[in-house]
Amino acid sequence: MESLIKYVQDEFVAKKDLPEFSAGDTITVFYEIKEGQKTRTQFFRGVVIQKRGTGASQTFTIRKMSGTVGVERIFPLNLPAIQKIELNKRGKVRRARIYYFRELTGKKARIKEQKRK
Q1: Chain centroid offset of residue 2 CA
Q2: Which residue, 96, 77, 93, is CA-closest to 85?
Q3: Residue 117 — pLDDT band, cuts 50, 70, 90?
Q4: Is 36 left (phi over 0), alpha (psi -120 to 50) or beta?
Q5: Is residue 36 within a helix (H) or strand (E), and if so which, with residue range?
Q6: H-type helices in 1-117, by residue range?
Q7: pTM for this model (two decimals)
Q8: Which pLDDT value is given to residue 18?
Q9: pLDDT digits (tens, 9 = 90+) for 28-72
Q10: Higher pLDDT, 31 or 116
Q11: Separation of first and last alpha carbons in the chain
Q12: Is 66 exposed, middle or buried (0-12, 13-18, 19+ CB in 10 A)?
């Protein structure tokens, strides 16, 4: 039964051409917002805390600081409202899920940039 679900997801869910990113990377997600009849594009720039799931149900969590308040948002990877994702900076972290990043403030909340190969 699970292989049937996976088959349907692979065949019928439209795949988007998005860049590869992982935890610690700083990305900008451009997504569409509908307000009544109008639509506009808004962006959310922050550090990827985690990627979770596989296939069509994959999600990723982004965290940014808005003033002194931390804001996190979870995006499904196959969300139709996502227009594009820009990779701003590759971060060098040792873990796949950097929950410890939530408690860090100031200079400790910086992530080293990964050297380009």
Answers
A1: 26
A2: 77
A3: low
A4: left
A5: none
A6: 2-12
A7: 0.82
A8: 86
A9: 999 999 999 999 999 999 999 999 988 778 899 999 998 889 999
A10: 31
A11: 42
A12: exposed
CA distances from 53 to 21, 46, 77, 90 (A): 14, 20, 10, 21
Residue whose tokens read 């969590």: 61
Sign of CA dihedral 88, 22, 96, 102: positive
Quote the tokens at residue 69. Answer: 């308040």
State mean pLDDT over 6-28: 81
Is 98 in contact with 70 (CB distance < 8 Å)? no
In 3D space, the residue among 64, 59, 85, 86 whose CA is nearest the CA of residue 74 turns out to be: 59
CA atoms within 13 A on the CB side of 38: 4
**91, 47 Cβ separation under 8 angstroms:** yes
